[in-house]
Queue: 2 jobs
Job 1
Amino acid sequence: MEILERIPIHLNPEEIGEKLLVNKTGNWDDFQSIFEIAETLISAKAAYEVRYVDEKLKDAVIIDGVRFVSRVMRKNLDKVGRVFPYVVTIGAGLEDRCKATDDLLEQYYLDTIGNIALVKARKYLDHELRSRFAFESLSFMSPGSLADWPIEEQKQLFLLFEGVERSIGVRLNDSCLMIPRKSVSGIFFPTEVTFYNCQLCPRDNCVGRKAGYNENLAREYGINVWT
Ligand code: SF4
């Protein structure tokens, strides 16, 4: 298992403040002091593995002996032999601070700053993998982001990460959620065209959407159950 310790996270308070509509909903000085505290509580780390696809079944793939059931993954890995399972976290500092305050606005600010930091940490890992392994383009899938690859498959994914709790402090609880909550996991794989889960997800008004819903693509993947 490869570990990236102390991932540098550069956050821009003006950008985040704008996103949070601080000028309309809050006080800039309050936000600035919460932001400064938040920065000190972020401790971003990542673990990743280099693994190989053993077998490609009809609606599943076997990666180093672990079976993942997902039609979308099966299609995404059609021409792929090597994959990079990963776990990224920003640690428990921010969520502990969130629990310690009753101020809903502060909780909202901390939560949003944490989400932005987590996305940046995963991007850092993405760049690291591209440069270490000379990939032009990488995509990722995460258990629980599509009905096709449910959250329960976290258990399978974590089978590939023996000792990850000891290394970067992330574990799964009984509901297959990662602790600390500000963690993400999944599988990076090389692609010619970037794949986004969002292309297959019809959810309306999602602030996290990275690409438009593509009904034709969803049909191609055989998961178009909404029409
Ligand atoms: S649209 Fe939102 S819910 Fe759907 S996959 Fe993208 S980020 Fe997740």
Job 2
Amino acid sequence: MNWLTNLIKAGSKIKERIRERATREQIKNSKWMSPCCGNTPILKSSIFNEEQLNTCPSCSKHFPFPPRDRMNHFFGKNNWEEIDTPKLHDDPLNWPNDVYKKKLAAARKATNQRCSVLVALGEREGMKITSFAINSAFIGGAISVESAEAILKACDVAIENQTPLIAWSEGGGQIMFESGLSLQGMARTVLGVNEVKKNNLPYINIYTNKCYGGISASFAGVSDIAFAEKSSMIGFAGQHIVKNQTREELPSSFQSSSELIRTGFCDGEFHRKEINDKIMTVLKILLKKNSAISAEENEITKDSQSLSKTA
Ligand SMILES: [Zn+2]
């Protein structure tokens, strides 16, 4: 029975090795993280700080930026208020063993948010602005019925206060646990942002890494201006699904924000450190406020109109 003894010994060795591996909690609490570039572990504090804004100083990889940090950075601390969003029935499809309710409870505890969308009303450079951001730490940023209602609330606030609307979009799409109910959110949110546009209020969407599924296919995809944070991945179905369906090698730039600028899906990509100023420049031009590029300079002069007619 030598082979059996050897097998038991090998099994116990494997168990020991598994026990030796760091737990999820230990990884979360560690000061170090796996490198996004280079070969050595990097200090989390070199990326996750107020100067770097959760971006890598070496390769500029953009890590998720929690919505409250995002609003603090955009509006300035204490220069914005969080808007209450509608509270709906949790788990409308009554999943067995409370599997969805448990996920919701864990996400709420981890993020201190009701749903994946946070709505804010604030002021920057003397301009009142409504904004909402998706938190990918809340069940992957999935859009539930309640998240869609939060987006509609943001649209209402923008219209009531006659402010532009700025969306920070990331996540994988509509939440599976609410099936067709969450899919309705796609149509509802598009109708919501269309109401903002009907009121002649600018609607700017910023794709942040990564944005897929029902998010890019609904409210995020119908903005007046579409920006992206540097090196964001944007698409509908993920690369693996597309590759399996087409059975073709995909170009390395597939679904990257730089490629989407080339194809016209996206208007510009910027580093997180500079994107706020770019948004403000666009808003000032659209709303004809004081700007480095004045509205007059930006308009076509009579002379140039007549020249183009001649041409
Ligand atoms: Zn890096």
